[in-house]
Structures are given as C-alpha cells and as structure tokens.
Amino acid sequence: MTSSPKGSVDREQIYQWVQNLLNPETREQSLAELSKKRELVPDLAPLLWHSFGTITALLQEIIAIYPLISPPQLTAQQSNSVCNALALLQCVASHQETRSYFLMANIPLFLYPFLHTTSKLRQFEYLRLTSLGVVGALVKPDDKEVIQFLLNTEIIPLLLRIMEHGSELSKTVATFILQKILLDDHGLAYICYTYERFKSVTSVLQSMVDSLVREPSGRLLKHVVRCYLRLTDNPRAKEALNRTLMPEQLKDGSINKMIKQDDNSTKRWVQMLQRNLSNSKNTPQQF
Hints:
Blueprint (H helix, E strand, L loop, with lengths): L10 H10 L3 H14 L6 H7 L3 H10 L12 H19 L4 H6 L7 H5 L5 H18 L4 H9 L3 H10 L2 H16 L1 H7 L3 H20 L3 H14 L3 H11 L2 H4 L12 H16 L8
Helix pairs in contact: 1-2, 2-5, 3-5, 4-5, 5-8, 8-11, 10-11, 10-13, 11-12, 11-14, 13-14, 14-17
C-alpha cells in the first residue's frame, strides 16, 4: 500500500474497506476505519450508496441488534459497531447527492427503534445519540421533503420522550430537530393543528425549562427558547402561551440569568418572545 500524506487518504484502501463491508468477518474493522476517515473523503456518501450491497450490509448491522434492545442486552462493543454503521449512514443522509435517495428508501425508519429505547446504560445512550445525529444531518439544510417525511413517520413523540428523559446531549440534538421542524411552515402548522399536539410539545418544553433552572445548559436553552419563539408565529399558539402555557421564567425575564454573557442570539430571541407575547393581547385567538 502506498503511503499517503497526513490528512489525505489512500483511495484504493477506501475502496477495499467499502468492499470488505460485504463480508461479515471483515465488516467490523472496515466500519471502524471508514467511520474514522469519513470526513476526509468528500464523495464517500455517493461511493457507499452506489456500491453494490453496501447499504444492505449497513442495514444488516443495524437490524442484527434489534433483539438486544428489549430487554436491554446490548454490549458496548456491539453498540460501538452499530454506531460506526450509523455514522456512515449519517454521511449519506447529509450529502446533497444521496439525501433524497436515503429518504425514498425509508432508511430513517430503521433508526426509530433505537429512538424508542429508554435504557440509561451508556451503550444505549450512545446508540440514541448517534441515531439522532443521522436525523439531525437530514434536517440541517432547510429541506421541505425531509420535514414532510419526519411528520409522516411521526417522529415528534420520539423526540419529546428524549427531550424529557435523555442525557443533556441527546436532549440538545432532539430539541434542535424539533426546532428545525417548527421553523418549517408545514411543521409549525402540523404541531399547532390540534390543541393536543401543541400541548404535548409545550408540556415537554415547560419541563425542560424547569430542569434548566436546576441544571443550566446554555446550548440546550438556546434551542428551547427558539422553539417557543417560533410557536408565537402561530396566532392560536401565541394566545395559548400568553394565557397559561408560557413558563414564568421566560415571561418575567428571569431566564436571562442563565444565558451566557456572549450569547447575543438567545438574548435577542428572549426579547422577541416577550414582545410577541405582549402584542398577542390585541388579537385574541383560541384553539
């Protein structure tokens, strides 16, 4: 094998690792190597997608651990191997050329069982977080096709459960995904279509604000505030928030004590939120 300059990759070795994914005996090592090198290979996503049998091999790795989810029997080594497979799927999900194919094949659905898990064991948390990373990669660009897919497959209850019971990092990624759904006009309309949907979201957001008072997290607070601000763009939601459903910490400004000094965007969003709520009294609308 020819040596490669630091920061570059040996293309022939990449091709060999991709081919080795088809063999169960060499798959684990190839997953680990490709996962480590994925940032250095800009066209890895098309290579994975268009290589014969590769996506099937990644899905086989994922499906194989379904029986270990409940009751929780997953080992750290098994979790690590599957997370390497998920990292490669995240690469496919985030690439402009392969994102639509990824959706049309319904591949995100293979990750939903991992988002359903509730075990606090580290290997399960790692599995949830990496699965959320794949969905997060999908929603990062503003793509209505992605939002429609997530709404149609009812991901919101899974996100809400993680937002309420996950680790801080999982909560942060799940809330970011919810924020991206809300920022889409169809996503906002979907969540505010019935009072029950709206209330399920605001109940979890309220619970998160209460938790943040006890255990502050600037990055998590940023996404929570942005979700609340976006909800006020819906007249009925804004009125409901103003009446009873807005946390007092956001209404009276005491939340500002939790915002980092240099976090100007969150400070601005809190101010906009308070302004929107004060204006809502002039145009009352109810669910």
